[in-house]
Every structure is written in structure tokens, then in C-alpha cells.
Amino acid sequence: MTTSSRPVIPTDVGWTTDTDVLGLPRVMAARLPGGPVVMLAGVAATIWLSVADGATPLVASVAEATGHPVATVRADIEAFVDDLVGQRLLEYR
After folding, report:
1. What's the domain count of the chain?
2. Which domain holds residue 65?
3. SS3 of residue 28 by DSSP
4. For FRET with 78, which of 33, 57, 68, 90 sits at 20 to 30 Å CA-CA?
5. Using CA atoms, how far apart are residues 39 and 2, in angstroms rounded to an integer?
6. What's the pTM value of the predicted model, to 2 decimals?
């Protein structure tokens, strides 16, 4: 993740959200029209929903939502976002 850009959901990605039996968020996302569908749960869903909400800075927003220090989670969040960019489910703008 670069400091001069932020992750966004491309227009050719469809997604929806629901909750699991414990009430925690889940996200299903897919490149349209052919997929595949990717299921995100737990912190992965929190990261996706933060991107969808336009949270800035993203890492600080997710850290606050999960109750972890920014320094502890930064590398994992950035790596996860980069992975979703690699799958073309997110892009940097």
C-alpha cells in the first residue's frame, strides 16, 4: 500500500455483506461477470468494509475497530490489501 494512494473497490467488482451466526460481518465479493466469489470474514471483512466506507487512514481505522495498536497490525493490513489488489478485487487510486 502506498502513502499517496488509497484502496478502492473497482466498478467491475460486485459485493454484498451479511452476518454470521455470531453477528459478525461477512463479505462476498467477485469480479464481474465471472468471479470467482471470495468470502471475507472477521478482520478481513472489517478491512473490506472500511475500504468501502472510504475510511482514511485505513490502517488506523481498522486498528481502532479491532482494538489493536496501529504498529501491531499495519504490515498485516497492508499485505492483505495488496493481496486483494493482486486479485483485482481492489485497486489503488
Report:
1. 1
2. 7-92
3. strand
4. 33
5. 25
6. 0.93
